[in-house]
Amino acid sequence: MTQDTTPIVVEEVDYVYDSGLSKHHVLRDVSLRIESGEIVILTGPSGSGKTTLITLMGALRAMQSGSIKIFGNELHKASQRALMKTRRNIGFIFQQHNLLDYLTVAQNISMSLSLGQGGGGKKARTRIEEVLDQVGLIEHIDKYPDALSGGQKQRVGIARALSNGPKMILADEPTASLDKESGRNVVNLIQELCREQGASVVMVTHDNRILDVADRILHLEDGEIQSISSAVASSTSQMLKLLNRHDPDAAHYMSAFSQALTRVALADGNLDDQERGAINTILVEHSDLQPAEVDLVMEMALSQVRCRSPRGAAGEAAFSHEQSVHFIKSLHAVAAADGEVSDMELQEIAQIAGELGFTLSDAEMKELG
Ligand code: ADP
Ligand code: MG
Q1: Alpha carbon nearest to ligand 1 atom 13, residue
Q2: Which one of 16, 186, 327, 328 has the lowest number of neighbouring Cβ atoms within 10 Å?
Q3: Three-state DSSP class for residue 115
Q4: b/e string for 167-205 if b means 16 or more Cβ within 10 A?
Q5: Is 26 in the pocket of ligand 1 (CB under 6 A)?
Q6: Residues lining ligand 2 (ion), CB within 5 A?
């Protein structure tokens, strides 16, 4: 019989914290798979159950129901011995680097080495040198954690997680206590090293700036895995509402300004990183908005500008006839929502149809209206 060696298969997992006085249902019917070599980011608001889920997958917390298989080994109702064995095949990276202050960098790493391969002596030292070299910290091998910056400590954490050559890395908010640049470096390093070793990664974060390293993003909300588009839609609309409420003038100005900038940048048909960077810098300098808010405004402007020029480079129509009919019908439905379709609304619909390049004849337009 061949065993399924998919790194992670989670099926119908529920988890409840029961304090005796109250029950808190944290995970509901969660199912997911992580394939070999995949880098998956798990996002979701604080308290949504991310840590609970990742500690269940890491065999660090006893399961209550459902099934989790790690490289084919079932965790639910497994013996302590079996759970220990599973844990040894996983590299863990935590929010706090979890280094012991009274041990040197090398000694900290050897702690987890000895748990794994029973290392010690020369062979262990060689392996420690190897992983520290990979994270660019070889010259700090005999220092104590106190002598290192936050980013460096987290890199030691990565070296330690990789020291046993695990095929899977579980990381819980590895950048949460780092500044933007060190966070970025840490995440890039995790990505690069895991790709090299063919290891799968599940990384919990609510730092939107690092989502791009993921092959796939899973969003946890209200204890359930949701699609990324619903996550983006809900957080975008919430951010925009906030922006409007706190600073309507700025929101209006910014949306007009960013659209103008984006149109210029898009005029040659594509928007490269330099143009994107320039827009971002200008917007940050000319507003009281935070960089994250500027990112959002810019993305909105981009999608609006793209929408205005919906024809591809070859000049082909961007929308099918069926899509056009559906679009126009929906515009009419919105116009009619207040009871009556005014002339102004009809004009606006015609204008929009023209801008978006809908391929409907006048007769069809009349019929839909
Ligand atoms: P996240 O990592 O997404 O912030 P957690 O998995 O840590 O979420 O927690 C999910 C929910 O479960 C939170 O509302 C938290 O307060 C609750 N919780 C976490 N750990 C415990 C615990 N040991 N006892 C009771 N409730 C807990
Ligand atoms: Mg957490």
Answers
A1: 47
A2: 16
A3: helix
A4: bbbbbbbbbebbeeebbbbbbebbbebbeeeebbbbbbb
A5: yes
A6: 51
From the CA of 220, give the closest atom in ligand 1.
3
Residue to substitute in 15, 26, 53, 204 for testing ligand 1 pocket (most ligand atoms within 8 angstroms of CB): 26
Helix (H, G, I), strand (E, B) or coil at 9: strand
Distance 5 CA to ligand 2 centre (A): 27
Per-residue pLDDT band for 286 (boundaries 50, 70, 90) equals confident
Q: How many residues does the chain have?
A: 369
Mean pLDDT of 78-107: 91
Encode pLDDT of 94-153 as tens digits: 887 789 999 999 999 998 886 545 456 788 899 999 999 999 999 999 999 999 999 999
**Do the beta carbons of residue 259 and residue 305 sit within 8 Å?**
yes
Task: Return the residue whose CA atom lies nearest to atom 21 of ligand 1.
Answer: 17
